[in-house]
Amino acid sequence: MAIQIFKKQNFINTLLKPESILFSLAFLLFSLFSIQSFAQNAPIKLIVLDPGHGHATYMQGRMYEGLDPEVHVYAPAGPDVETYLKSINGMNSRSSNPTKWKMVVYTGADYLERMLAEKKGNAVIISGNNSKKAEYMRRSIEAGIHVLADKPLAVTPKDFEMLKKSFKLAKKKKVLIFDPMDLRYDISNILQKELAEMPELFGTLKKGSVDDPSLIQENLHHFLKFSGTEPARRPAWFFDIEQQGHGITDVSTHLVDMTQWAGFPEVKLKYKKDIKILSSKEWATDLTPSEFKRVTRVDYPDYLKKYLKDSILSVLANGEINYTIKGVHAKVTVNWKYREPAGSSDTHFALMRGTKADLELRQGAEENYRATLYIKSATGIPAAEFTPAIEKVKNKLQQKYPGLDIIQKGNEWIVKPGTFKRTNSAEVAIGYILNNTMPAWEVPNMIAKYYTTTGALGY
């Protein structure tokens, strides 16, 4: 018996020698287990609630340090959650830098109550039907869960009042509400903002007028977009202003945010004092039954029939808001068309007027639909004075963005971005949650933003 034990022990010792193949395999398995255990102990555990918009995946485009790879999804069964899961599966199976999300999915009529009872995460992504968003946020905050909600957080004045209460509750519960604003992380927008903060070039922001605003933001979007060769699906409720919201309370959120962020950086806005709505208007984009079906894969549901005239669907997706912010005239405009022409894309236009220069961002055919920043001297500023200012700010920016250049073309200068480290709203959100804090201006400026959009509704 002693000999048998010795032989068994000797055999085990041999297997555990570093040069043993089995030792290598055992070490590999142990390492993988340790890595997985470490990842699953990541401080941020995501929940995805009733995903209905492509932005529901914004935290899952790649793997982030601090995020647990296991994500719990709670939703009613149907095409919305299926579209979301298909997108995640596509990212998990792509050949280049595949993600490694482990999806734990519950579908059922009691999905919200199930999520709150199980509480499998500490941060919830809410990106779907906007008519449900206020309740989703409130219930999540009551449960002590951070809220990462796609814009808009409010689409009606009533929603805005509920949102203010949600921010107060979040402060009490010591959790955060954050709406990711991806336009902030585009280099062309960053450079426009930074140049506006250089008085030697820009001067100061003009007050402007209703007919000649000093802050202009305008977007053009298209209902039909393609993911590869197939058109991307939009849910039918996206075309119902009672569920998605009017154009001036939906996409305009991004434009109002850019106006505040670039025009008044890090300033805590007081919405009752600093924002004054002057006028607003909205108009429809018409869709035929075949156009609607191509985008949604379904025929008109009953709840859209009130918007039909002779089978044509009118969608109040377009809008314009004229207002002042700290006495500066601003205008935001959002436009929607059915389908983008071949070779084009959605576009963004932004203008900031200073006492010394205009900063204009264009994204049209001339720019090959790539956001491009232009500088133009203000009327009355001689070239002999302006050119040295261009050289001065160029040298300053090149220290931060190697390779940046500013090239004269006619009576304008084109800013060519250099190398830069791009961040995104997911990384920002992770930092906010890990530190359980945001810059002092974020919450008051979110409130000011939604006051502007919902206040303009029907003004």
Can you describe this structure?
With 459 residues, the chain is an alpha/beta fold. It folds into three domains: 2-40; 46-181, 3-Layer(aba) Sandwich (Rossmann fold); 183-456, Dihydrodipicolinate Reductase, domain 2, CATH 3.30.360. Helix content is 36%, strand content 24%. It contains 14 helices and 18 strands. The strands form three sheets. Strands 7, 10, 11, 12, 13, 14, 15, 16, 17 and 18 form a ten-stranded mixed sheet that branches. The protein has a six-stranded parallel sheet with strand order 3-2-1-4-5-6. A two-stranded antiparallel sheet has the order 8-9. Strand 4 (123-126), helix 5 (133-142) and strand 5 form a beta-alpha-beta unit. The chain is globular, with a radius of gyration of 26 Å. The model is unreliable at 1-39 (pLDDT under 50).
**What composes the largest sheet?**
10 strands, mixed
**Helix/strand class:** alpha/beta
Mean of residue pLDDT values: 90
The CATH class of the largest domain is Alpha Beta
Number of helices: 14
Termini, distance in Å?
94 Å
What do we call the CATH homologous superfamily of the largest domain? Dihydrodipicolinate Reductase, domain 2
Low-confidence stretches: 1-39
Provide the CATH topology of the largest domain: Dihydrodipicolinate Reductase, domain 2
Rg (C-alpha, Å): 26 Å
Q: Give the DSSP E fraction (strand runs of 2 or more residues).
A: 15-25%
- Number of domain modules: 3
Give the helix level as a range of percent: 25-40%
Tell me the overall shape: globular
Number of strands: 18
**What CATH architecture of the largest domain would you give?**
2-Layer Sandwich
